[in-house]
Structures are given as structure tokens and as C-alpha cells.
Write a structure and sequence with these properties.
Low-confidence stretches: none
Shape: elongated
Distance between the termini: 140 Å
Length: 366
């Protein structure tokens, strides 16, 4: 490791909460387990070393421990933890014993000179290290003192506020007691009014319940078929007239897809598509399959009930026009047969006229 890199590492600021999220997200996407340690100074090695810092953090340690253990495997993870524990122990012991001279350490003797020659700024860092640590501790102590003073001031201010509020509450309580009788009389008057209003509301509620029952009976037992269909095409409700029209029970009809009862799938597909597009259908002709296998011709009027732009269900009226349609078909068939007969008679008359003309021509020759 170069001297400039050592100095940059020593002067590097503490990682922030943003760095915590960053390195955790980078760990999560790494494949596991690693078969070999990453190349020196590679991005993955940087991620692993940076993430290792958070192992000793009380708040963020568990996610990093889990991911590092997953990536490194049990043995390499234990080696990493042992290394970090050793570094932390040495660091704490040196700080607790400032009288220890690092110059006597053989590793310092062997390597420090070359590092200082390569990066002179390291000498200033090591020369001011104890003073820097002392200054940081003093700064922290001052901050803690300021924080304690701030808390004390806040507590005093809060105490004054509570005392003032208590005095105001006591004064207000006296006023309330002096007006207690007046308020009780007023409340009794209001209570009497409320009793009358409740009785009136109960009467109105009873009327509404009767109206609701009448409306429900009108819808359920009316002569026109009614049903609701959800946005997924499932029948949500149908009245008795609809069930009687097709011959199904409620269990056989409600809860099924509406397309099951249409003889023409293209027609029901068009109906659902147009209703989804917020169109209103009037006298839309369709063919329905009854339970006994026969076909019913119906006219459909329908639109959609929306709640804040959300498709809730359709409102569909189904009118039986089978008799009329059969009459129309019979009339059309009779008209076609009559047209054929007229054509045949016309052709016969044309032939007869041609024959008569030939006879007259022969007669004139005689």
C-alpha cells in the first residue's frame, strides 16, 4: 500500500447513513460464496473492506454480518472478524496507554522511514495524532456539556410552561364551576331537544326502511329482468324475472361469467367492451341460452355504475323479444315465399303472352 493511500485512509471521514445503504445494497447483489479473495484494489475488495467497518456498528451490524458471512463463507468470515477484533483491541490499548512509544516497534523501524520519505505529510499526521485525539475528546466533552445545558434549559422552559398552563387551567376551572348550573340547565334543554330529534329521526328511518323494502321488492319481483355484472364479467346479482326468463336457479346463474349464457360470443364481447368504454346501450339485441337449451331473443339496456372512476358493476335491463322476433322471422319467411310465387307467376304469364303472340302470328298468315 502506498504512503499516499495510507494518508488518505487515515484522513478519510466517517461513513454516513447514506454510505450504509450504499454498501449494503452493493453487498446484496454480489454472488456467493467467493472461491478466491478479490484482486487487490478491485471494486469488490473495496466494497468488502468498507462494509467490514459496519460489523462493529450497533445499529447497522446485523445486515452486514449476514451478507459478509454469505459472501465470504464461514471460514473467511471468521478470519475477517478476528482481524477486525485484533485491530480494534490494539487501537483501544494504544489510546489507553499514550506513554507507549511506537518508535520502538520493529515494524515501525522497518517501514515508517520509507513511508515518511514517500509522503512527508504522514509525519505531520503522526506528530499531531495525540493532540488531535485530545482535541476531539475535548470537543466531544464541550458538545456534551452544551447538550446538557440545552436540555436543562429546555426542562426549565417546559416546567415554566406547565406551571403557567396549570395556572390557566385552574382559573378556567373556577370559571367553569361558576357557570356549571347554567350549563346544566342548558344541557337539559338541549337533551330534551335531542330526544325530540331522535324520535323524529327514528320515524324517518322507519319510513326509509319501508321505502327501501318497497324498492327492493320492486326490483326483485318486477316483470323486467335485471342483473349486475362486475368488471371481470362475473354476474354479481340478478332478480327473479331474469332467472325465470332463462330458467336458472340463483346458484346456477349468479357467480358465473355472463358469456356462459350468451349464444353469440362476439356479441357479449362487444357489449362488455362498449360498457367498459363508458357507453350506454339501448335496445341492444342479443341471443341468450336458456337452461333447457332453447334460445331467447332479448333487448338489452345497460350502463355502468362508477365510484370515483372505478368500474363497480353494470346496470342491465333484459327484455324478452322472442315472440316479436319469431313473428318477424315468420313474416319475413312468408314475404320471401310470396315473392317467389309472384316471380313464378310472372314468368308463367310472360311465357303465356309469348305463346299467344305466336298463335296470333300464325293465325294472321292464314
Amino acid at each position: 500500500m502506498k504512503a499516499t493511500e495510507v494518508l488518505a485512509l487515515l484522513n478519510a471521514p466517517l461513513l454516513s447513513e447514506t454510505d450504509v445503504d450504499k454498501y449494503l445494497s452493493l453487498l446484496v447483489v454480489q454472488p456467493a460464496p467467493l472461491t478466491d479473495w478479490p484482486e487487490p484494489n478491485s471494486p469488490l475488495e473495496h466494497i468488502l473492506f468498507s462494509a467490514s467497518i459496519f460489523i462493529t456498528s450497533r445499529d447497522a451490524c446485523e445486515p452486514f454480518r449476514r451478507e459478509l458471512h454469505r459472501i465470504l463463507g464461514t471460514q473467511n468470515y471468521q478470519h475477517l472478524v478476528a482481524l477486525l477484533a485484533y485491530i480494534k483491541t490494539c487501537h483501544g490499548w494504544i489510546e489507553a496507554h499514550p506513554e507507549v512509544a511506537s518508535e520502538a516497534d520493529q515494524r515501525v523501524i522497518n517501514h515508517l522511514g520509507a513511508l515518511l520519505e514517500e509522503e512527508p505529510a504522514l509525519a505531520e499526521f503522526f506528530g499531531n495524532y495525540q493532540e488531535r485525539v485530545k482535541h476531539e475528546y475535548q470537543s466531544l466533552a464541550q458538545q456534551l456539556a452544551k447538550l446538557a445545558e440545552y436540555k436543562h434549559q429546555r426542562q426549565q422552559a417546559e416546567l415554566k410552561r406547565i406551571v403557567s398552563k396549570t395556572a390557566r387551567l385552574q382559573k378556567a376551572n373556577k370559571k367553569l364551576k361558576s357557570k356549571e348550573k347554567e350549563h346544566i340547565a342548558e344541557l337539559e334543554k338541549i337533551n330534551e331537544q335531542l330526544r325530540h330529534e331522535i324520535a323524529e329521526l327514528q320515524r324517518i328511518e322507519l319510513q326509509l326502511r319501508r321505502k327501501e323494502q318497497e324498492l327492493s321488492d320492486f326490483v326483485e319481483n318486477g316483470t323486467i329482468g335485471l342483473h349486475w355484472v362486475g368488471p371481470d364479467g362475473i354476474i354479481l346479482w340478478a332478480n327473479q324475472a331474469e332467472l325465470d326468463l332463462l330458467g336458472y336457479t340463483r346458484e346456477e346463474y349468479i357467480g358465473h361469467h355472463i358469456a356462459e349464457f350468451h349464444a353469440d360470443q362476439a356479441v357479449i364481447g362487444d357489449i362488455l367492451q362498449r360498457l367498459t368504454a363508458k357507453e350506454t346501450l339501448n335496445d341492444y339485441e342479443a341471443r341468450l341460452q336458456t337452461k333447457d337449451g332453447s334460445i331467447k331473443y332479448v333487448l338489452i339496456d345497460s350502463n355502468v355504475f362508477y365510484d370515483e372512476e372505478q368500474f363497480i358493476h353494470t346496470r342491465c335491463f333484459t327484455r324478452d323479444c322472442t315472440v316479436r322476433r319469431q313473428a318477424e322471422q315468420a313474416l319475413k319467411q312468408a314475404y320471401n315465399e310470396l315473392e317467389i310465387r309472384v316471380t313464378e307467376r310472372t314468368q308463367a304469364l310472360v311465357k303465356a303472352n309469348q305463346l299467344l303472340a305466336e298463335v296470333r302470328q300464325e293465325a294472321s298468315k292464314l
